[in-house]
Amino acid sequence: MAGPRVEVDGGIMEGGGQILRVSTALSCLLGLPLRVQKIRAGRSTPGLRPQHLSGLEMIRDLCDGQLEGAEIGSTEITFTPEKIKGGVHTADTKTAGSVCLLMQVSMPCVLFAACPSELRLKGGTNAEMAPQIDYTAMVFKPIVEKFGFTFNCDIKMRGYYPKGGGEVIVRMSPVKQLNPINLTDRGCVTKIYGRAFVAGVLPFKVAKDMAAAAVRCIRKEIRDLYVNIQPVQEPKDQAFGNGNGIIIIAETSTGCLFAGSSLGKRGVNADKVGIEAAEMLLANLRHGGAVDEYLQDQLIIFMALASGISRIKTGPVTLHTQTAIHFAEQLAKAKFTVKKSEDEEDASKDTYIIECRGIGMTNPNL
Question: Which EC numbers does the record give (predicted)?
């Protein structure tokens, strides 16, 4: 199975954990032996962090592969994949490392396994610098399922920075192949809803204040829609540690979903957290795209694997998205084009169409 090693420079473009996630997932799927060098070269703490390590070990276990150089602080790994297998797999970041990022790396792989999978992911569910689990469940899930698969995401325990301690169980069955998607018609916003949460010792008033501030901020710009943000006290037996945050979702007439979210930090007042999430949502609604800036890069690997031509309309193309495209082209040989949207309603906006001719990956086991 093993051909020559594919060389990946982990220091270019986004230069972080994302290169590792995209390249190891594609290596696993395509049976390509891989060497990644200069891992997180430009970061303040270069090399592998616990979260990246647990992702790599999970991919290794998913396909009985060989992994060398995988230790904290290492800037070079080699990976030799074997056959992807289903069943139960556990990954534990042992920190507040994001379970959502663990899901990003493993999900494309287990779609092409021989039998159904159960992924037990442990770490942070609502952590900085990563999607919150609510985003994964409420935005990523319904959109990514348009590729023609379904998954179940069971939040057993929420975990926050710095302790982590969260657990999410993802169950999914393999597919023969992925359908292409077309997300280019945004429609108009029909609903805005969300949740503002507190966990642990934080008073419920914080949740109410975040929600109220977010609603006030959205009202200034969107006056004709009811904005329903529920304040939530996470039950003691379903949350580990202390945390607060908010996610707000806008849904459109064509089923597009956009989000804004924010997490509380020590010393940041609740209003500010609510306003930050609201402003992020409003910014994502202004650019005229059909996906928000966080969904962009998460869809690239699925577009690359699908059978046929996928198109998504986006706002400004993020560095994460450019990075995912670069490695999908290098490793999977998918073909992407990114061009300014030519629709007249987008003329004044920074709107793009990302198009991909997928490689039509088929599951050899089915």
Answer: 6.5.1.4
What are the CA-CA distances from residue 197 to residues 6, 31, 205 (Å)?
44, 42, 10
Q: Which two tokens stand for residue 155?
A: 């939040």
At how many degrees (to 10) do helices 17-30 and 319-327 cross? 30
DSSP 90-144: EEE-SSS-BHHHHHHHHHHHHTTSSS-EEEEEEEBSB-TTS--HHHIIIIIHHHH
* Model confidence pTM above 0.90: yes
Q: Is 297 assigned a ligand-binding role in the annotation?
A: yes
From the list 109, 248, 95, the residue with the least C-alpha distance to 170 is 109
Partners of 355 in the β-ladder: 311, 337
The reported pLDDT for the residue numbered 4 is 86
Q: State both tokens at 298.
A: 């998460």
Using CA atoms, how far apart are residues 68 and 157, in angstroms rounded to an integer? 32
Low-confidence ranges of the chain (pLDDT < 50): none
Please, is 233 exposed, middle or buried when counting C-beta atoms within 10 Å of its C-beta (0-12, 13-18, 19+)?
Answer: middle
The structural domains of the chain, ordered by start, are 6-183+291-359 (3.65.10.20), 189-287 (3.30.360.20)
Q: Is 294 annotated as a binding residue?
A: yes
Among the options 52, 89, 320, 326, which is catalytic? Answer: 320
Query: What is the model's pLDDT at position 346?
Result: 85
Q: Tell me the C-alpha distance between 215 and 327, whole Å.
A: 40
Residue 295 among known ligand-binding residues: yes
Pairing of strands 335-340, 352-357: antiparallel
- Number of Cα atoms under 13 Å in the Cβ half of residue 341: 26
CA distance 328 to 29: 12
Check the annotation: does 104 bind a ligand: yes
Q: What is the pLDDT of residue 1?
A: 52
